[in-house]
Amino acid sequence: MAVMKKKGGKGLPAISTASLPDVIFMILFFFMVSTTMRDQELLVRYKLPEATEVQKLEKKSLVSFIHIGPPSMTMQAKFGTAPRIQLNDSYKSTRDILDFVAAERDKLSEADRASMTICLKADQATKMGIVTDVKQELRRANALKISYAASKSLGY
Amino acid sequence: MAGDKRKVQEINAGSMADIAFLLLIFFLVATTMNTDTGLVRMLPPMPPEDQKQEDIKVKERNLFLVFINGRGDIMVGAAGKQDPIDLSQLTERTKEFIVNPMGDENLPEKTEKEIELPDGSKWVYPVSEGVVSLQTTRDTGYQSYIMVQNELTRAFNEVRDEVALRKFGAKFSDLPEEQRNVISKAVPLKISEAEPRNIKK
Q1: A30, B67, B135, B146: which has the highest count of C-beta atoms within 10 A?
Q2: Contact status of B137 with chain A (Cβ, < 8 Å)
Q3: Chain A residues touching B31 at Cβ < 8 A
Q4: Would the pTM count as exceeding 0.80?
């Protein structure tokens, strides 16, 4: 009886939350280390094709992106749904690729220019016609190292 | 004095968690997780425009044609002797073409090449002369193109793995840089991409 009384009177001690900030900081540091900053706003929608033999892109600073895909939802009223090419932050045509590559190349130091990589991020439903046009322009611009962006799949 | 008796007041750390949460949410929103991966390729340089383009002569047996049509069907084989195959067979066919284990007359010839090893010695390896030529039409889907590229890469990677295992006793991806270069010279990634053909529907 006495034991019961004692328990009821005291109640459970409050759980200490003093280490909560430490836990949150740990999660924060994890995210800071494992993620990268979003660098540009996407104007096209794409779902990358899947492949098993993909390689990681080594140096992020040497990589320039060309996005190909149908315009994103908010832009469709204005631009329709036909696939577009996005360079930097606007829609461009294949003719602008030459200038784009030249500008990207200028940003790099002399030594790095040879290893500049162009990463083609194209929607999986894109037709090869537009991709080939881009590739021809890249050849003309002498940006020969390219990477077809694909997400890693574990096989099928 | 009352002030002397009292200890220096501690700063309330109760809101520390909130601050950390705020930072955490900021990073969750402003960053992306995905690392960029892809199939790396080298494009052939553009020939000078004033120069008359000569077709590079490649012996028929050294050429492995891969066609993809608008519906994603694949046709492979030497020129004139192509047959439609399924995507799952492509890796095997390509490997057979690269390795040519039996020295078949219809499969690519090999030339003995001296390759310098990292330790300075020479290594003679019969390097295949075969070239995989990939052709698409303008309305081929990008998805099927990447799937074919993937199978071709897989074929080359598997052959490289086999050669690397025989030579260095480890898989290609586990080798150090210099040894990987040696294997890359022994089994070069020769995929030529012709301009797409205009096929009227």
Answers
A1: B146
A2: yes
A3: 31, 35-38
A4: no
